[in-house]
Give the backbone structure.
Amino acid sequence: MSRCARSILAAPMTVLAVLAGSALAQVELRMTWYDDGSESQVMRDLLDRFEAENPGIEVVMDVVPYSSGILQSLPLQLASFQGPDLARVTDLGGLSEYFIDLRPLVSDAGYWDANFGPFLDWMRPAGSDAIPGFMTQLTVTGPYVNATLFEQAGVEVPTGDTSWTEWAELSREVAEATGTPYAMAMDRTGHRLAGPAISMGARFFDDTGYPAIDDEGFRRMAQLMLDWHADGTKIPDVWIGSSGSYVAGNEQFVNAQVAFYMSGSWQIGQFTNLIGDAFDWQAVPNPCGPEACTGMPGGAALVGIADTDHPEEVALVLDFLAQEEQLAEFYGRTLFIPGHLGLAESGVDFDAELPATVAALDTFARQVPKLHPTAYALQGYPYNRVVFDAVRDRLTQAMVGELTLDQAIERMQSDIDEQIEEAQ
């Protein structure tokens, strides 16, 4: 049955109006969406504009929680051919088999190649030249600090290259001087941990390109995570106090419960709205290890789903949204780093008055040239979600004493091997 099936009310006074309305909305598309802040409002404005220009198509946005709706439910829906027509996703390589190829459907495939080319490789099957969708944002992982707490503690916020251990020491000093409950927080995800681990020397791949966790660099960062949770440097609510999948530490940072928070550029819009000028907050460069001072690249893409009943209409929607005029407005209003090469070069007029917002955008943009090649390789690896989840879950078990670090790393690798074998 088509997803656009509708029921027509039989009331005599309304039947003509209903029939007229159905003639104008002959195709209904469902878009699964999640919010980092309130970007669904901006997308809705753009979709309203699209619908005004294309009265035969209606796009219904289903805004769902990121963890339960995108990470957990959506893959199951796609695997059972019960997915939406379009979806905003972050597991680009892992879900690529379900994405549409817009190349034969869009008006100018060359425009897409020229402006989204490097990012299309993240969301297409290996060896393919498919155009599945476009990046709603390019993200870079990195930390934020509560600058007000640093000032109250009389501790200068470092401006040059600063190591992870130095940041931990400074954050503990700030927390102790100001009575802040905890010094640091990091989102509970292997993706957020990957940049610090690579900075410490983690390779993540063997010489054949297969995931390999156990090396000195990874152990160095994993041990720091264990130590910081054991001595109270890290807030336990995010990693130890949670179970299942992804957990963010943004609420704790907004409520001034931590001095230092490792997350990423997608938090800028939310912090602008939720913190405002309640306290001084700022993004700071990624801490360093002996190998690098890197975060992880990433982002979210809006893609079409291959089993849609309406591929031509899906292509019309995505082609409209992907044009510079619409994307410049979307990036500018949502305060997202552009995932569009033309706009990255020409610049985006960000709708921001708060100095902290403008400074944070600049800080994250300046992190892009520092991203390590291993970070790009890991982000583009089609089974990276398997790696991230294994690291997250087994390291948490080590934090609570269920496993030693040796046992945790052994089981990380075993989980990765088993799940990749199943997927292949």
In short: The radius of gyration is 23 Å. The chain has two domains: 15-138+298-346, 140-297+359-423. Residues 1-24 have pLDDT under 50 and may be disordered. The first helix runs from residue 15 to 24.
